[in-house]
TrEMBL record:
Topology in membrane: Peripheral membrane protein
Name assigned to this protein: AP-1 complex subunit gamma
Lineage, top ranks: Eukaryota, Metazoa, Chordata, Craniata, Vertebrata
Keyword tRNA processing among UniProt keywords: no
Membrane-spanning residues: 496-517
Organism: Scleropages formosus (Asian bonytongue)
Amino acid sequence: MGSSEMCRDLAGEVEKLLKTSNSYLRKKAALCAVHVIRKVPELMEMFLPATKNLLSEKNHGVLHTSVVLLTEMCERSPDMLSHFRKLVPQLVRILKNLIMSGYSPEHDVSGISDPFLQVRILRLLRILGKGDDDSSEAMNDILAQVATNTETSKNVGNAILYETVLTIMDIKSESGLRVLAINILGRFLLNNDKNIRYVALTSLLKTVQTDHNAVQRHRSTIVDCLKDLDVSIKRRAMELSFALVNGNNIRGMMKELLYFLDSCDPEFKADCASGIFLAAEKYAPSKRWHIDTIMRVLTTAGSYVRDDCVPNLIQLITNSVEMHAYTVQRLYKALLDDISQQPFVQVSSWCIGEYGDLLVSGQCEEEDPIQVKDEVLDVLEGLLASNLSSPVTRGYALTAVMKLSTRLSSVNRIKKVVSIYGSSIDVELQQRAVEYNALFKKYDHMRCALLERMPIMEKAAANGPTETVQTNGEAEPAGLEPKHPPTIIQPANQCFNIFTGFLVISLVLVLTVYKIAILTKRKVSPIGIPPMTAYNKNGLKIDFTFERSNTNPNIAIITIHAANSTEAEMTNFVFQAAVPKTFQLQLLSPSSSIIPALNQGPVTQVIKVLNPQKVRLMRIKLTYNHKGSPVQDLAEVNNFPPQSWQ
């Protein structure tokens, strides 16, 4: 309860009481010293001499509070951390006495001697051993002893084992000891207690990057957790399952995850579908398997997938020339069964429009060709008339009908269908229909050329290093997307190209296909754009720095620098941004999801804004965990420097 002024005045008295002969007073004085240090950190050195002597006490209460005091000092001062590393042998000796001592009624809890003190010592050892070879070497043996001798039938033993595992994973421990720690977590997954299973999954998720092969041994147990009734366990199991996917197990893991996608609650479907898309793109054993997997997701959870899945799948199909006949047959057959999943219907419509002639050509040996060409038009007309179809889906269907005018012989029927929608109440659909009617009447000689098949679309690699590290620890070649893909926020009213009907979604694709030279002629110097502070609250400060893209000066590149001035790190940091509909915004992956404490290093993330002229407003959303509590905040950035949009 004491204020900083009171702590400053009484610190000398507290320091004297730490040396008193009364153990009860020494215990209380140590706790007061912890509070004084929290309020007035510069008084820390005053307690340094007395703190060393406290570890020689026999009284467990004094020992416990002295370890708490040491922990507080090490967390707040790198100098103290270096100074107290020489106490590691003494702490190891205390811990060894605890686990080797006989029964003591005063300290025994479920057959374990003073588990509270053991946990405190393990936490302090974790801090002292992190990043230090000598300290880690000194505690390897005792950690192995604790891990093998602690009884696991009670929660008390599980708590000690959990702290032991965290300590082993944080220090520079031997490889065999790390495998032992992961095996302990694997045993936790078989425990009936849901809390223990949850902390095991969370810990494995943190360690999978450094000990991927050891975690892989428990893959079947982790996958079984997807069937758990507890939603928290299912979410952690799903995240860990995706982290375990690699080129060797992609087929088996995708089979299990697709089963999970079929039966999981709606709250999981979006994240699960996104994870499957990313894993399939990185590790697909063949293009056919890749296409089949994405189609399975779209037919199962099409309403929950990201907006960019439709153009991504269209691009994949377009580039797989040998799979066109097979793909359009599969999509057509699936469309006859279900038209409720709008992204799937959009992809199907696009493919039927592009490759509708392959439906009747018999090029696909695995499927029987369509016998009556009008059946294809019947399906598309059904989509146009269906109440289940969204305006965007109807746009796809109308464009597909128009494209079939150069691929099938039913031109008169197609003219009638197009003319009907020239008076549609949907302005976008009406505009397309009027344009297509004009194409029939005035530019019929150009129709075949304008409606020919789309060329192969090359996917531009995101700017970044030539090599990144995946969650499984393998080196990933340049050009692959990172684990968290760039998020593209698009205007609500997407428009269709007037003749091709190809949905204009990705700026990169448009520039690749049509090579709009006018956008690359202007040269804007990035020099002279001052940085700005976009957010500064609760110890979190976010600065923006600006530059212009070398390849396209119409793209502004904003780099955010998130720094944490508090004494505890911020974890699970997520930065989101939105701009007005007249712009396109692309968020690349952050450098980390953890912002170190005390400004020890910022987290950076790149934002790309298309057409940044006069961007005066951006809304941002920040989500992170701080000191065990989730934090979420919204802010509006409206103080951009004029040079950033001139």
